[in-house]
Amino acid sequence: MSSERSRFIKEAARGRGKSNPERITRKSKASPESLFQTIIYVTVGQSSKRYGIHMELLCHYSAYFRAALDGNFREAIDGVVDLPEDSEETFANFNEWLYTQKLAFVEQLNQDDENEVYNQLFELYVFADKRGITKLKNDTLDALNREIDAGNEYPIEQLRYVWNNTMQSSPIRTYLEHTIAHGSQSVGAMGKRVEFPKSFLWDVANMLMASGQSLRSVRRHTHCEKFHEHDEFHPGCRKKRPLLRLTIGRLTGNSTSPISV
Question: Which of 46, 100, 158, 180 is the most buried (most CB within 10 A)?
Fold first, then answer.
C-alpha cells in the first residue's frame, strides 16, 4: 500500500484532512435519500473490474473510503478508487452486503462446500478490516459464529491465513481462540495435521488455565461485548439504530430489503 493510501485510514480515524461536507454525509445528518446521491467507481483486481457504487453509502460504512473520497486525494477528484490487490469475489460479496446487509453467499455455498464458506468469510473479514468497515466485520464474525455453533467443522485450515492477515488484537483471533478454549471442540481431537500459529496455541493455553468453566458456545448475550467493534458511525449493538425504510426499489423500481444502519 502506498504512503498516500496509508494516510486514508489514519486521517479518518483522527478526523483530520480537508473535508467537504457537501460531498460526504455524516451520521448526524444521515437520511435515507442522502445515502444515494452520487455514483463513484471502484476498480477491483488485476482485471480492473468496475463497480458503480453510491459514494455516500460507501463512505457511511467505510473509514477507508471516507478518507479517500473526502479530501484532495486523486480518488476524491476523479471519483474513481483503484483496488488492484483486492479479490473480485470478495469485493462482490462486500458490494452485495452493502446494498442488502446480507451475506447471501453463506447460504448459497453451505450445502456444497463448508470449507469454501469459511474461506470467503475470512477473506471478507480481512477486507473489512483493511478498509475500515466495522459493521461488516461484526456481521461476518456473527456469520462465522453461526456456522461453528451449528456444529460445522472448525475452520482449522484457515487459521494461518487469519493470523497472517490480522493484528494481534483482532477480535476474530480472540473469537477463534475462545471457541477452542471454551467450546465443544479441542485442538487435539480435530484429526488434521496443521501447523498452528504459535501465538494461537499460547493464547488458548492461557485461556484454559485462566478459566474454570467450559462454555459450549459463545452465548448471544455476550457475543457483542466480547467480539464486536464499534465506532461513532455504528455504536453498540444494544443501542437502537434507525432502520432506513428507503429501499433501492424506490430508486430503481425494483424490490429489495431495507437497509439497516
Answer: 180
